[in-house]
Each structure stands twice: as structure tokens, then as C-alpha cells.
Design brief:
By secondary structure, this protein is of the alpha/beta class. It has helices spanning 75-84, 103-113, 138-144, 159-172, 183-186, 195-200, 207-224, 236-247, 266-270, 286-298, 313-316, 333-342, 349-363; strands at 2-8, 21-26, 29-34, 45-55, 57-62, 87-92, 119-122, 176-178, 191-192, 204-205, 228-230, 252-256, 303-304, 379-389, 408-418, 421-424. The protein is built from 13 helices and 16 strands. Strands 3-2-1-4-14-15-16 form a seven-stranded mixed sheet, covered by helices on one side. α4 packs across α7 and α7 packs parallel to α8 (236-247).
């Protein structure tokens, strides 16, 4: 297949090239790249018309729900949403039924995803059944294909267990990803604790509940030398803790979701308690949103992820306090990035791509794809100016719990090429 008239960019692009490139892919390999390639007889041709092309993006924090919760999402539908959002790779969290706490579940996911155009990397549990009581078989799961360990959905609450997990993960050279939440401080919060929650009469989750656990894990990483990765960071103080730890040489990384650098707790009031604004960590304040952008811009926050969390209509269409936490994110992430980071000139394109391409794979010890002749064809074609509306018709997920549903957005993933497959985002 021949891809024509594309602008090549990556995390090292100091400026946007003024010329386009043609790319020929044969049997999943980039066999030719130049400013002009003539099509072969009967060769399929895609004209990018000046769209960008970069190495494939990765989302290191998604919930595919399979096995056990297929009414919300499946590996296939989740990967379809990922492809539509421009992602050629995802790492899936272990809060499934059964949990990803044994090698057989890891291998089930790996095998189920083999034929799909999106690379799927399972994240195994830290503890057996995610109960936080005893360590899961981390080494065996890594041998089966697990790339990190987490009890996401719940924190590794026991400090001794977390210390042991970091020791083992260090020997395996993988990170421990923790959902940073002090449950005694946070529950039964339904939104951010602050002026808005007080005005609405809802019990809130304070930022300190996240920050206390971040501080604990930084100290444990310092003690063990293990790599702790802070999941879905959301508070200014949390970013400051990570920034300080990095300056001290502690092995800590972190990620942020687009909704946490775009939306605030005010949206819950404005929307009349729309449960599609309910997530965990909760939407915080405008100051916290600004801190997320600052952290991305200065490199404190390593990666952009979505925490894509599908829930069925029946689960979300209830009173706010009874609704589960979580929203979809795969298909709308790029538009939020364009709006909040590129259009505002808070970050250059190369730095944004570093957070989407290089950093997630570097954190998970995965090979970073290269856009050059002889390499596997693993790339994303995208633009920054197309206006489009996210609707139930173009939504690829099995669920539809998104605050961006029916919103006009700007910037879109055109398609992905990976594993010898081309997925065009129509």
C-alpha cells in the first residue's frame, strides 16, 4: 500500500517540515520513503493531503473490561476505539473478572489481541485477586507478557506489600503503577472536595487523599530503588511532589488524562449532575488543571493517557452518587490535546508527541517505533484542524459514557497502520 502527501513528524522534530513524504508499506514493512513514489499497478493508494504522520501513539492506561465485563467493552471494541483515536498500542489494566493476576489471563489477552491492528500489553495485578493481601506471581506473569503491575481501580494500600512489590518489580525491571488514593481520606467522596461540592451538598474527595499516597510511594521507591509510576495524577501538590522527587533522582514517573487538563469540578454543576463528569480521581479545580499543563510542559508529567473506562448506559444513567466512576477517552484524547496544548501554544507538537509515543513505551520498556525504511510500519496519520462531532454513530466503544459526546471537536486521527493493517477513521 502507498501512503502519499504526508508531513513526517516525531518527538525530535525541531520544526514542522515544509515538504511531504510518500511511504510504501509491503507485508507490514516500510519498504520505501521519498518525496515522490509512483504507484504500482493495482496498488492501493491513500492520499493524506498534507496530514501529519508520526510513529504510532500509545495509551498506557486503558480498561478493556475483558474478560468478565464484556457488556461494557471487549478487547476488540476497545481496540477499535483506540485505532479511531490514533493509538497503535494500549496497555490494559487488570480490574477484570477474573482479575489479571495469573499468567493464563495475561496470555488470554495477548492471544485475543494478536489479530487486531492495535498492540495490546496486559498489566498484571500486584496482589492476588486485587485484594491487597498477598503478592501475585509477578515473574510468571511477566514471562506471559505482562509489562507492568498494578491493582488499578484500587490502590496498593498496604505499605509493606507495596515495598515488596517494588523490590520484586525492580528485579524484573518493570514499573509498579499505583492508583494513588488514601481510602480513609477519600471515601465516600463523589467529586472533588471544595467550594463546588459544598455548594452542591455532595461528599467530596480531597486532593490530600491522592497526595498522601504519592508521598508514601515516592519514599518507598527511594528506599527500594524500584520504579513507581503514579497513575492519572490530578492535583497541583501531587505534581509538585513528583517534580521534587525527580530532582532528587528517585525513580518515579507519572501520567495525566486529557480530562484532567481540560475539565473542572464546575462541570458537574453546569451539567446538572451529568454522571459522565464523574470519574476517579475526580475533576479538580482550574488551578489543578493549570498545574497539569505546567507539569506536561516542563516534563514533570511523562505521558498522556486516557484511563478509558467504559460503563454501560444502565450503570451511568442513575443518580450521581450511585454512578460508577469513569469515562471513555480514546477517541477524543487528541482533540483535547489540540485544544488545550497546541492551539494555546503551551507545548510544541514535538513535545506532545514525546508524551504520546516515546514516554509510554520508555516507561514500560517497550521498543519505540521508527518512521523509516526497513522498519515495521507502525504509524499514526493525524491532523490538527479538522472539525468533527463525536456521536454515537462514530463511537467505536461498546459504551458511550463520555462528556464529549455530541460536542464539536477540532483535530482528528485520520488512521493508523500497524501489523500490516490499515485502519481509516471514516
Amino acid at each position: 500500500m502507498l501512503f502519499r502527501n504526508l508531513i513526517p513528524v516525531d518527538s525530535k522534530s525541531k520544526s514542522v517540515p515544509s515538504v511531504t513524504v510518500d511511504i510504501r508499506v509491503e507485508n507490514g514493512i516500510i519498504t520505501e520513503m521519498s518525496d515522490s513514489i509512483e504507484p504500482k499497478k493495482d496498488e492501493e493508494v491513500f492520499d493524506g493531503k498534507g496530514a501529519f504522520v508520526s510513529p504510532g501513539w500509545m495509551d498506557m492506561h486503558v480498561h478493556l473490561r475483558e474478560p468478565g465485563l464484556e457488556h461494557k467493552e471487549t478487547i476488540e471494541t476497545g481496540c477499535a476505539a483506540a485505532a479511531a483515536g490514533g493509538f497503535t498500542a494500549v496497555a490494559c489494566m487488570p480490574n477484570t473478572i477474573p482479575a489479571i493476576h495469573t499468567r493464563d489471563v495475561v496470555e488470554y489477552i495477548v492471544n485475543k489481541a494478536k489479530r487486531l491492528p492495535v498492540d495490546v500489553y496486559p498489566i498484571g495485578c500486584v496482589s492476588k485477586e486485587r485484594k491487597g493481601e498477598s503478592l501475585a506471581e509477578m515473574g510468571d506473569m511477566k514471562d506471559g507478557g505482562a509489562v507492568a503491575f498494578s491493582d488499578d481501580g484500587d490502590p496498593v494500600y498496604n505499605a509493606k506489600l507495596m515495598r515488596t512489590a517494588l523490590d520484586y518489580a525492580s528485579m524484573l525491571d518493570v514499573p509498579v503503577i499505583n492508583h494513588e488514593e488514601d481510602l480513609d481520606l477519600s471515601r465516600p467522596g463523589h467529586m472533588n472536595e471544595g467550594r463546588v461540592s459544598s455548594r452542591l451538598g455532595l461528599e467530596g474527595t480531597p486532593g490530600i487523599a491522592e497526595e498522601v499516597m504519592i508521598a508514601r510511594d515516592i519514599l518507598l521507591a527511594e528506599l527500594t530503588g524500584g520504579h513507581v509510576h503514579v497513575a492519572h495524577i490530578s492535583t497541583r501538590r501531587g505534581v509538585e511532589l513528583v517534580r521534587d522527587a525527580k530532582k532528587r533522582g528517585i525513580n518515579v514517573t507519572t501520567e495525566v488524562c486529557p480530562h484532567h487538563f481540560d475539565l473542572t469540578d464546575e462541570e458537574i454543576e453546569r451539567s446538572g449532575f451529568d454522571t459522565n463528569y464523574k470519574m476517579h480521581p475526580p475533576l479538580r479545580t482550574e488551578d489543578d488543571v493549570e498545574a497539569m499543563i505546567e507539569g506536561l510542559a516542563d516534563g514533570t508529567i511523562d505521558a498522556i493517557c486516557t484511563d478509558h473506562a467504559p460503563h454501560s448506559i444502565e450503570e451511568k444513567e442513575v443518580e450521581f452518587i450511585y454512578a460508577p466512576n469513569g469515562i471513555l477517552g480514546l477517541q477524543t484524547a487528541w482533540s483535547v490535546v489540540v485544544c488545550r496544548l497546541l492551539d494555546t501554544k503551551r507545548m510544541p507538537l514535538a513535545d506532545v508527541l514525546e508524551r504520546l509515543i516515546d514516554a509510554p513505551r520508555r516507561i514500560l520498556r517497550l521498543t519505540i517505533p521508527q518512521l523509516k525504511k526497513g522498519e515495521q510500519a507502525n504509524f499514526t496519520i493525524f491532523n490538527t484542524d479538522e472539525k468533527w462531532t463525536y456521536t454515537t454513530k462514530n463511537n467505536k466503544s461498546r459504551s458511550r459514557n463520555s462528556p464529549y459526546l455530541n460536542a464539536e471537536l477540532k483535530g482528528r486521527a485520520v488512521g493508523i497502520c500497524n501489523k500490516g493493517q490499515w485502519v481509516f477513521n471514516q
